[in-house]
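Below is one protein, fold included:
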Amino acid sequence: MSEIEPSIIERSVEKTNIWLREVAEELGGDDRHYAYRALRAVLHSLRDRLTVEVAAKFAAQLPTLIRGVYYEDWHPSRTPLPIHDVNAFLQHVAEEGRMAGETEASIAVSAVAHVLRQHVSAGEIDDVLAILPEKLRVLIAA
């Protein structure tokens, strides 16, 4: 049995901090707590809309700690949720992130999508986009 090196955890913490800093910057500030809420809300909303297979493949590209956040409270048997339009998706993000409404959620989705496109392979982003209804693709692809 191989032993997990503590350096894996340290590298994941470092990558997670980079992602949080980048999300915060995309949101126009440096509030890492808010960046975490936004990242978590968007990842959960995206995960809940994907098939189990695509959700798992997507998760494999996330840093270990962010992958844990992504899987937190997931019920694969309930996915994909029947979210087919932008307003319903943004409402889901707003509820997950305890946000004021769809405008705030839209800003969060844009920020997180930008960071995801910087760190997740284009092929995996394409796989995620292929699963989403066309109306939702615009949020991630923009």
About this structure: The two ends are 44 Å apart (CA to CA). The chain has a mean pLDDT of 92. The CA atoms of residues 59 and 98 lie 23 Å apart.
